[in-house]
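User: Batch of two.

Assistant: Item 1 of 2:
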Amino acid sequence: MLLKLSGRGLRALGEVSSRPFIGRISTDVAQRGPNEIWLARGGAGVPDGFRAYLLAGPRPVMPPRDSYALGPEFSYLSDGDVIRIEPDRGAVHAIYRRNSRTNSLLVTERCNNYCVMCSQPPKDRDDSWIIDDLLQAIPLMSPDTGEIGITGGEPSLLGPRLIELVRCLGQCLPATAVHILSNGRGFATGDLAKALAQLHHPDLMLGIPLYADVPEHHDYVVQARGAFDETIRGILNLKRHGVRVELRFVMHAETYEGLPAFARFVARNLLFVDHVALMGLELMGFARTNLDALWIDPLDYQRELREAVETLHRARLRVSIYNTPLCVLTPDLHPFARASISDWKNAYMDECDGCALRTQCGGFFASSTLRRSRGIARVRLG
């Protein structure tokens, strides 16, 4: 089931702040400070010196300022998590979860593509405050974090503020990999690619979607004329400046037939990219709206997928299959499958119970219940 990361889930227990604020969850009284939020479970006490208080159990007779009863839907919050509290709405947003391997920072909801299967439909509004919040939140994150994703919308629309954000990540979390999801168009001209490279981040990669080997098909999928040419120029510009690039190809009814030609195009023209990810469809946002036009059972494009993987693998490119359970892939594709679905929207079906491959399988998007492959089955060995 989907983990709720944002929404109403707080009830004020007295006087509260008038403006939103950001803080880090703590259950250690020694960590009191202006950016720490005390989390009390059961009958735990309420020490002074914290920015705010979340109470998941009995409340004190005289609660401190900024005390809130925490709803059960946010019971997963724990030490080291970084959250944003909106007192006037009684809302909480989990910006970062310390124990998760899949933390992503939404940096804007604006985008210059309008992809037919977009899981996060764009919104044309001023959301520049998001970067201000993230610059406060990043120093509170654990330096042991393995990877942080940056997503949108389209991050390159931020221009210099994207550079500011990546610089902050490099300074505060120098051992943390950063993966930016971008359509690549913003790096086609200007100095943005060069500025990103000049940060010399030790572990940075851009994931850029390319949905065809010809402009008209890619431009149709992203609903933006000229996007293919700008995306290709963006990829070339990033690689020219030494920035690592991952190509992404989402498989659905409008793209699957082009998989073999896409793979040949990449093997002939983009052999210098660092990774190619062939991705199953997430049935959210526009993909859900356009479900009848986009849905195809993965069983029905195994031939095209196998041919694409073989072409890319023979070209010595790193290739992975994302968002696709093992039971709907032919066995020869299993070595390329990765457990890629973020934990907060990851799910398993009844057939997964007792499956011999469950520990190796990435499972499903929680939204996958809208359409089921006829290949979903419990695998038994021997």
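Item 2 of 2:
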Amino acid sequence: MNIEIKDQDSQVNVVVNGDIEMMTIKEFKEKLLNIGQTVDKDIELDLANVEYIDSSGIGVLVSLLKLQKKKGKTLKIRKMSSKVMNVLKLSSLSDMFEF
């Protein structure tokens, strides 16, 4: 998995390439929660190149969303594969996120 972080004026863009699962969750969690805890900007996620996300990855997204809401900022998922969208729908969490 590869995570690209682009800090722009009004937001941080995060592009994730690769699956989010047990073998990659530590890096995913550390990088995303670090951004949520240290940056006071909106976050935009690009998950177009993620074919698989497990429950621990969904948990990180929910934690990041809560951090953003607490600061009055947004977390938007701009692009995602249909497989990731299906996981969010099956977990009944798709209504929590902005797309």
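Helices lie at 25-38, 55-71, 82-90.
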